[in-house]
Amino acid sequence: MSLAFRLGAFFLVALALLLGGFSVALYLLARAQLRQHLDERLANVQDALASAAEIEPDAIEWRPALQRSMDLAPAGEAPISWAAFDEHGNLLDRSGAADFSQALRALPQGGRVRRSLRLGDDRWRVAVHHLRPAQSPGERATGRRRAGPRHGESSVSVHASLTLVTGAREVIMESALVRVGFTLAGLSTLLWFLAAAAGLFVGRRVLSPVTRMASTAASMTANDRTQRLPSPGTRDELEVLADSFNGLLGRLHEALERQERFTGDASHQLRTPLTALISEIELARRRDRPPEEYRRVLDSILGDAVRLRQIVESLLFLARSDAESERPALESVELSLWLRDHLCHWENHPRAGDLHCETLEESPAWVKIHPPLLSQLVDNLLDNACKYSNPGTPVVIRLVHEPGAVALSVEDQGMGIEPLDLPHLFDPFFRSARARLRGTTGSGLGLSVVQRIAQTFGGRVTAESELGSGSRFVVHIPTIPSAMPAPSAV
Ligand code: ADP
Questions:
Q1: Is the Cβ–Cβ distance between 356 and 410 less than 8 Å?
Q2: Is 417 in the pocket of ligand 1 (CB under 6 A)?
Q3: In which residue ranges of the chain is pLDDT below 50?
Q4: Which of the four, 63, 333, 345, 490, has the lowest number of CB atoms within 10 Å?
Q5: Cα 324 to the center of its chain, rounded Å
Q6: In the beta sheet, which residues pair with residue 408?
Q7: How far is 21 from 27, CA to CA, in rounded Å?
């Protein structure tokens, strides 16, 4: 079931309930109004009849001729019939043929009463009004007739009490109500269908970008890396969604390309020493050779194998640090002590005499590191400094305090780096053209590993260089408060 359909169905059901409720309320209001209006008319006629009947202190005089002359049915409204009864329930007078004696029996005596009743075949709205003389019943003379009528009067009868009944058939009010009902139902249905059509149109229009995005996403293939979702240009949540999704696609494609480049470079880097290794073995096997020659070949094979192992180890480290979300367990270490201790491993290196270490004698620098990883970082930087500078030139390892961090730098006075190469130094397998031309061995993974290790410690690495003058690599590692236990870890 589509989203547009579900949304539309929800609002249409809500609208149907609203329109239904509104129509019923209007219908009930109209019915109450019409009934009130009819009741007012019945009461008016009763008042007119009552004012025409003269209420004496001891009796009520009834003059039929006066009442008959009243206009009791304005145009378009239900005609009102009336009847007058004496205190014994005898009919004194009435308009038309309406028989209200049944209503008189059915309705309670005294005051004004209004009811809807079935009289004969029709439903009637009936109002009853009891008139009494001003004095008590004992003082009244009942049933007497005045001696003679006044001028213009027919016979006038005198009674102890008088009951005036007015009524109108409800059929006219009911047909008006039926009209109101049909009009409301028709209007509501029309409104509902208009809203349904408009809702369907607007819903489809509003959601059409989603449909377009979905069909584009469905047609995307892994090979087509330039395709993106169409932006609806509506400056709303849908545009944000499309932009975010396109951003994600861009990042995924970048990661995929990096991965592919990485795999290609890795295969290339592994193939070169392997090819050299195989051809050396094949060459050695062609004929019998003296033992010194075999030793030389074996030494060369060992060199290639060591290179291969370094490459594989670096690749494994990079792959693992990509996949693992957890950091290795870090230890608190005082960096000056640790560095001096670590440089002991370099005592037998051919460039050992060129290495100068400037550590922080007075103020210790406590950091949280993983000592084997920091060893690898420092070794990679020192190895590069020695590789890309001439023997006899100094290589300086320096520790400097920075706000909230300590900077460990390795500086050489070697060949330097082209400014254009600087941004790519930390990309896996990057090797400068000058380094290749110079014939310096390397895999282009050393600095990537350095960067990854620095990030593992919550730090970063930067490179500065001047072509022909030398390079400086600085690793910034966050420091921790110095109130630490004695540097037993070193
Ligand atoms: P590798 O040294 O094995 O080639 P690295 O990742 O360690 O790989 O270094 C990448 C590239 O950065 C090197 O090929 C070289 O061009 C450049 N580079 C690194 N360190 C230095 C340095 N100290 N002086 C000059 N160039 C350097």
A1: no
A2: yes
A3: 71, 139-153, 483, 486-490
A4: 345
A5: 32
A6: 399, 475
A7: 10
Write out the two tokens for 301: 């094979």
Cα 367 from Cα 476, distance rounded (Å): 11
Beta strands 395-402 and 355-358 are: parallel
- Of 417, 449, 461, best ligand 1 pocket probe by most atoms within 8 Å of the beta carbon: 417
Tokens describing residue 408? 């460990």
- Residues 270 and 443: their CA atoms lie apart, in Å, by 9
CA dihedral 28→34→35→38, nearest 10 degrees, is 180
What is residue 148's predicted lDDT score, i.e. its pLDDT?
44
Q: What is the pLDDT of residue 21?
A: 94
CA of 434 to the centre of ligand 1 (A): 10
What is the residue type of 416? G
Please tell me the predicted confidence (pLDDT) of residue 323: 63
CATH of domain 237-319: 1.10.287.130
For residues 350 and 80, what is the distance between their CA atoms, to the nearest angstrom? 130
CB atoms within 10 A of CB 65: 14
Assess whether the C-beta atom of 426 lies below 6 angstroms from ligand 1: no
How much is the pLDDT for 73?
Answer: 61
Q: Nearest-CA neighbor of 280 among 304, 293, 295, 297?
A: 297
- Give the distance (Å) from ligand 1 centre to CA of residue 464: 12
Which of 372, 343, 354, 358 has the alpha carbon at shortest distance from 406? 358
Q: What share of the chain is helix, strand, coil (3-state, %, to 5)?
A: 50, 20, 30
Pairing label, strands 112-119, 331-334: unpaired
- Amino acid sitting at position 462: T
- For the question of whether the overall pTM of this predicted structure is more than 0.70, the answer is no
Q: Is 445 in the pocket of ligand 1 (CB under 6 A)?
A: yes
**The pLDDT of residue 151:** 47
Domain with CATH 3.30.450 in the chain: 3-136+147-178
How many whole angstroms from its chain centre is CA 98?
71
Q: How confident is the model over 35-81, as pLDDT tens digits? A: 999 899 888 888 888 877 788 888 888 876 555 555 456 666 778 88
Taking phi over 0 as left and psi of -120 to 50 as alpha, with beta for the rest, 11 belongs to: alpha
The residue whose CA is least distant from atom 23 of ligand 1 is 385
Fold type of domain 331-489: Heat Shock Protein 90 (3.30.565)
Start and end residues for every CATH 1.10.287.130 domain found in the chain: 237-319
Query: Which CATH number describes the domain made up of 3-136+147-178?
Result: 3.30.450
Query: Cβ(357)–Cβ(443) under 8 Å?
Result: no
**What was the pLDDT predicted at 191?**
94
> CATH 3.30.565.10 occupies which residues in the chain?
331-489
Identify the pLDDT of residue 481: 86
Q: How far apart are CA 316 and CA 265, in angstroms?
A: 14
| Distance between Cα 385 and ligand 1 center (Å) | 8
